[in-house]
Amino acid sequence: WLKCSDGGTRTQGLVRPRASSMASARASLPTLPTGGFVHGASGDAHNEPYRFQVSSLNVLPTRQNFFWGGDSPHPHGWVPYSGHLLPHHEDADGHSRFQSPPRAPLQHPLLPGSENSTHASQSSGLSDHKGSDVAQEDLDEEDLLTMREVVFNLSNTVLGVGVLSVPYAFRLSGYISFLLVLLVIAVTGRTAVFIGSALCMAERSPLAASVPRRGRDFAFLAHVAFGDCGRMIISSVTSLEIWFALITFMVMNGVNASLVWPWLGNTRAVLLSSVLMVANVFVPMRMYSYLSLVSSLALLVAAVAMVGAALTMFQWANPYDHVGAIALIQPENIPRSVGIIVFCFAGHPCFPIVHECMRDRSRWVPSVALTFFVAFLYYGGLGVFGFVVFGLDLDASVTQNLAHLEGALFWRNISAIAFLVKIQLTAPLLLNAILVSCWPPQVGGVEWPSPRLAALVMLAGLTALMAVAFADDVAAVASLTGSLFTMMTSVIFPALVHLRLAKTFGNTAESSTTAFLPHILILVFGVVMATSGTVLTVKDMWDSSPDQ
After folding, report:
1. How buried is residue 7: exposed, middle or buried, by Cβ count under 10 Å (0-12/13-18/19+)?
2. Which of 40, 93, 365, 416 is buried deepest, with most CB atoms within 10 A?
């Protein structure tokens, strides 16, 4: 961002040049690196790559968030606005360098009731959640999403293969699990709203001026609310959550593949799936955006095939008719069931990029409401259906029950193959996200140097070994992931960060005591279920180990 001779539009403390002045300014600019931001000189910075930390774990195709680290309030290499054209000179090697101007002091965060809050907001480019013009300032037209596109992207992260274990949650706790699905959707839907509101309040922080909108992720929110320590904690937890989810998916893939090709076996199916996962990491993201649509269609086909297979049965289990009250509620298993259900809503770390790319961010709440209503029908409906059909004989993955159905070979194979395709197309995105969080690619360098490629293979190998080790405990792994990690990223963290930002940057209504009641209830729910669910799941895994 530079101020050109014909003026420009101020954008969060920086200046965007008008289109007419770009041609004249471009000739004197150094090489533009990734993202189109000008890399100015500061000492030897011109010959160094950006110092940045990629902390986004976004699994949406064609989306990748960057959080720019460093001690400076501006990203290293950005040229801050100084009110005049930046002088530049050529060094001994003939490279054009900008001279670093004095850094202007940052404004203090906007506080409720501040006398100059209006003036500060205008001068720094801040806005509330209805300021769609500001939301579009650093986004291309092709990046802006309509409400329909937002709902599609949210649904793509919320609706997934976790449904394979949801009927087992009903088998553990009974029909009360239908209310648990409703409760989890109410909680996670509310925390999704918190995420959108927290992003709007975080705009009032000076840190927002140094982070592009597409780079505002969970790490950004944690940094604004809790500093570097909070950013590192949430990044680590999210990485572990995605890794455990990847292990669970690989276990499910082994089950589905061995169901269609029994001669392959579970272990070899997991290893083959892991090899394909590594290979698919190198598929161009533009092509993967189309494959994302294929994976969504595969999920729909799988659900229809499951119903078709069940309809071939002459008699359903109807557990209440045979076991009575046990089919209604088993309270001792409720934390286990909640963990399995929460595991299905592990997509919250992807929500910030969708929110920031909205054309009209005031429609975030109805978009979330519509998405989670569809999720309720999907998970609640298939959960009840699976329990009614198979009853207390349900396996940890419902496709295992389909293997025992006579006369349903076609529907069984279609369902298993569809889930196999869905997982196989999702797994490379998760694997790459984990690697990027640990070892980001070097800007301006080779994306896959030998050591980084070796790290990718080692990570995939470790994932495969863990999947083989827990091949018979898919429900326990899903419950552990949901209770321990997803509960933190999708329930506790959004409520906690929104509470913190509302106290710091919120208006009178947002920072009132009564407005914090939903936060307190959600935090109590999250802490209690995370603690009890994790303890019970670890106990189950310990009891089922061969040595016990």
Report:
1. exposed
2. 416
The total number of residues shown for the chain amounts to 548
CB 392 within 8 A of CB 171: yes
Nearest Cα to Cα of residue 539 among 169, 237, 531: 531
Q: Which two tokens stand for residue 166?
A: 């949801």
Phi, psi at residue 10, to the nearest 5°?
A: -70, 135
Q: What is the pLDDT of residues 139-165, one digit of tens each?
A: 566 667 788 888 888 887 888 888 888
Longest dimension (CA), the chain: 87
Q: Which residues contact 456 (CB under 8 A, 6 or more apart)?
A: 278, 281, 431, 435, 448
Strand partners, 53: 67
CB 209 within 8 A of CB 124: yes
Produce one character per residue of 177-206: b if its CB has 16 or more CB atoms within 10 Å, e if not: bbebbeebbebbbbbbbbbbbbbbbbbbbb
pTM comes to: 0.71
Rounded to whole angstroms, the Cα distance separating 197 from 225 reads: 13
